[in-house]
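Sat 14:20. Reprocessing the chain from the morning session after the first attempt stalled halfway. Input below, unchanged.
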Amino acid sequence: MSQTALLRAVQALDWRRKKSVHAAERDAERVRALRAAFLEAVQSEDSTCFKFVDPAPT
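Finished this time. Tokens:
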């Protein structure tokens, strides 16, 4: 199927693209303060103690 045909189908179905690349909430002052507090708390931790689990089945 051609790109033009796909574009017409998307328009006919009234499907829309996302208007923004990221959530606007991420730039809120409260969220920035929480992120800064989290980063400050994590920096004092010993990173060798962290364990990461891969949820993908093997």
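The helical segments are 3-12, 29-43.
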